């Protein structure tokens, strides 16, 4: 795992978005534009990157382990990818593990011609489908769930590539935003629930697709709209566009955690500024869970907008009580005794002069395992904070995600193991509170969560998975762990 992510992988104690995808058709420098777009999506995956291009005759691919800049900043790398159509992928391994053979876009020569595919999401019946395909003679080149789609397209009996593709997707469960390339052009689509995001833009005559609108901004493209849940957008080589809705109208369930943490704050998601939504979550948090304190301090960087919202609503001053190093590299060998929490301090250090003697409210976007929250609370206390109140800009993360987000197994999630009082004790906070699920829905513009037909996927908070989970026996994964209760006495 690469640990140089400036968008914070705090000791593996964050949920991680697994992939970002980008595609362009009709640009003379399609591969260079794709590299730039992927660079803007680097926060969605730092383990590996790949780009495939098409020059009207042939497909070209280049894939590498590491960041976009490590693999695609040289003129030579881009020169290996000629053509006016290109698609790329940044990845942190979802299913299938790491290794170059799993780096996307995946490519296959089918009877109808070349087929390249870049996937953000996770197919929750991939193992089931793969078993069947292998029994019928399919030979898999990777261990990625995405390759299942290629084999389903290859073995479909429909005559046209588009029909084969739709036929394949009908068999697939789970979350997928896809950008595919064929000799006829590009196809971009989202699963019927629209769990993972995908937007469409224009740059002159070129059509651009990306996981987030920030990638359109960076390449200079104008946002046209989101690809709708269940929609396939087909762009021919001459630039003409056709849209298809093979799944009919289904209720949407986009991932609400994109608003909380995954997407960049300068992206527009569901027509809303991610930054503004995060501030609104902070406002809700302050309304629901006030604290008597001197300062509101964000856990950088993802806690910053919610902390601003909390501070504005509560009237408590916002201050930067934790300073993040911008030069965090790979994990160092820990010096022995006396360097307790050296790794977390290397990334974040207390602004001692500010926090000493103060009662502080710390704002973070989520608590996953809780180990980093504990270290940060300890850091604040060591810097002299008199009281540390922890407020979280999402409901307790009690369940694993099976839709393309790297989550620890359920038994490792602090909120699945403990009630809130016990969690507060574990992280050694004077108080701990989370925004409610309805508060989160209000922040994204809803009145409240519709419990019979939720407007978003919120399964990591509620356990209400919007699709079958065939590979897990179609049950909510992991038996419910018995929750520990806090001991009556508070840890000082
Ligand atoms: S389970 Fe959570 S992280 Fe996964 S798609 Fe649903 S809301 Fe997003």
TrEMBL record:
<dbReference type="Pfam" id="PF13537">
    <property type="entry name" value="GATase_7"/>
</dbReference>
<protein>
    <recommendedName>
        <fullName>Amidophosphoribosyltransferase</fullName>
        <ecNumber>2.4.2.14</ecNumber>
    </recommendedName>
</protein>
<keyword id="KW-0460">Magnesium</keyword>
<dbReference type="InterPro" id="IPR005854">
    <property type="entry name" value="PurF"/>
</dbReference>
<keyword id="KW-0315">Glutamine amidotransferase</keyword>
<dbReference type="InterPro" id="IPR035584">
    <property type="entry name" value="PurF_N"/>
</dbReference>
<comment type="function">
    <text>Catalyzes the formation of phosphoribosylamine from phosphoribosylpyrophosphate (PRPP) and glutamine.</text>
</comment>
<dbReference type="GO" id="GO:0004044">
    <property type="term" value="F:amidophosphoribosyltransferase activity"/>
</dbReference>
<feature type="binding site">
    <location>
        <position position="255"/>
    </location>
    <ligand>
        <name>[4Fe-4S] cluster</name>
    </ligand>
</feature>
<feature type="binding site">
    <location>
        <position position="401"/>
    </location>
    <ligand>
        <name>[4Fe-4S] cluster</name>
    </ligand>
</feature>
<dbReference type="InterPro" id="IPR000836">
    <property type="entry name" value="PRTase_dom"/>
</dbReference>
<comment type="similarity">
    <text>In the C-terminal section; belongs to the purine/pyrimidine phosphoribosyltransferase family.</text>
</comment>
<dbReference type="InterPro" id="IPR029055">
    <property type="entry name" value="Ntn_hydrolases_N"/>
</dbReference>
<feature type="active site" description="Nucleophile">
    <location>
        <position position="19"/>
    </location>
</feature>
<dbReference type="Pfam" id="PF00156">
    <property type="entry name" value="Pribosyltran"/>
</dbReference>
<comment type="pathway">
    <text>Purine metabolism; IMP biosynthesis via de novo pathway; N(1)-(5-phospho-D-ribosyl)glycinamide from 5-phospho-alpha-D-ribose 1-diphosphate: step 1/2.</text>
</comment>
<feature type="domain" description="Glutamine amidotransferase type-2">
    <location>
        <begin position="19"/>
        <end position="238"/>
    </location>
</feature>
<dbReference type="InterPro" id="IPR017932">
    <property type="entry name" value="GATase_2_dom"/>
</dbReference>
<feature type="binding site">
    <location>
        <position position="460"/>
    </location>
    <ligand>
        <name>[4Fe-4S] cluster</name>
    </ligand>
</feature>
<feature type="binding site">
    <location>
        <position position="365"/>
    </location>
    <ligand>
        <name>Mg(2+)</name>
    </ligand>
</feature>
<keyword id="KW-0328">Glycosyltransferase</keyword>
<keyword id="KW-0808">Transferase</keyword>
<dbReference type="InterPro" id="IPR029057">
    <property type="entry name" value="PRTase-like"/>
</dbReference>
<keyword id="KW-0479">Metal-binding</keyword>
<keyword id="KW-0658">Purine biosynthesis</keyword>
<feature type="binding site">
    <location>
        <position position="302"/>
    </location>
    <ligand>
        <name>Mg(2+)</name>
    </ligand>
</feature>
<keyword id="KW-0004">4Fe-4S</keyword>
<feature type="binding site">
    <location>
        <position position="457"/>
    </location>
    <ligand>
        <name>[4Fe-4S] cluster</name>
    </ligand>
</feature>
<feature type="binding site">
    <location>
        <position position="364"/>
    </location>
    <ligand>
        <name>Mg(2+)</name>
    </ligand>
</feature>
<keyword id="KW-0411">Iron-sulfur</keyword>
<keyword id="KW-0408">Iron</keyword>
């Amino acid at each position: 795992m690469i640990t140089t992510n400036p968008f914070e992988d705090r000791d593996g104690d964050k949920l991680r978005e697994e992939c970002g995808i980008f595609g362009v058709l009709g640009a003379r420098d399609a591969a260079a534009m794709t590299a730039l777009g992927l660079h803007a999506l680097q926060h969605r995956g730092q383990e590996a990157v790949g780009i495939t291009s098409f020059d009207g005759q042939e497909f070209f691919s280049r894939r590498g382990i590491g960041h976009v800049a490590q693999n695609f900043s040289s003129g030579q790398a881009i020169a290996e990818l000629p053509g006016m159509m290109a698609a790329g992928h940044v990845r942190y391994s979802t299913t299938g593990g790491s290794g170059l053979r799993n780096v996307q876009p995946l490519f296959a020569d089918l009877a109808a011609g070349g087929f390249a595919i870049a996937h953000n999401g996770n197919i929750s019946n991939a193992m089931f489908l793969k078993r069947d395909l292998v029994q019928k003679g399919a030979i898999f080149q990777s261990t990625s769930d995405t390759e299942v789609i290629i084999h389903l397209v290859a073995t479909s009996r429909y005559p046209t590539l588009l029909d084969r593709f739709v036929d394949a997707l009908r068999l697939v469960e789970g979350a997928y935003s896809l950008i595919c390339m064929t000799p006829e052009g590009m196809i971009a689509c989202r699963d019927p629930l629209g769990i993972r995001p995908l937007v469409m833009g224009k740059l002159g005559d070129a059509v651009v697709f990306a996981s987030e609108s920030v990638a359109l901004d960076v390449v200079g493209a104008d946002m046209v709209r989101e690809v709708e849940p269940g929609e396939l957008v087909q762009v021919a080589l001459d630039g003409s566009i056709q849209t298809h809705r093979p799944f009919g109208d289904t209720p949407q369930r986009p991932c609400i955690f994109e608003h909380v943490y995954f997407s960049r704050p300068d992206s527009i998601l569901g027509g809303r500024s991610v930054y503004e939504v995060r501030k609104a979550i902070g406002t809700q948090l302050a309304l629901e869970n006030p604290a008597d304190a001197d300062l509101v301090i964000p856990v950088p960087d993802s806690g910053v907008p919610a902390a601003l919202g909390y501070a504005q609503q509560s009237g408590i001053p916002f201050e930067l009580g934790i300073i993040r190093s911008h030069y965090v590299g790979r994990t160092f060998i820990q010096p022995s005794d006396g360097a307790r929490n050296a790794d977390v301090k290397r990334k974040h250090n207390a602004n001692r002069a500010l926090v000493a003697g103060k009662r502080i409210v710390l704002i973070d976007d989520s608590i996953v395992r809780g180990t980093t929250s504990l270290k940060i609370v300890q850091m604040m206390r060591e810097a002299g904070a008199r009281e540390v109140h922890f407020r979280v800009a999402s409901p307790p993360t009690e369940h694993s995600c099976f839709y393309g987000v790297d989550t620890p197994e359920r038994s490792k999630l602090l909120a699945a193991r403990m009630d809130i009082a016990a969690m507060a004790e574990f992280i050694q906070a004077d108080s701990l509170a989370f925004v409610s699920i309805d508060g989160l829905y209000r922040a994204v513009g809803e009145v409240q969560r519709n419990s019979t037909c939720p407007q978003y996927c919120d399964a990591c908070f509620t356990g209400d998975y919007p699709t079958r989970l065939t590979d897990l026996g179609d049950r909510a994964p992991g038996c419910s762990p018995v929750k520990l209760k806090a001991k009556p006495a508070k840890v000082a």
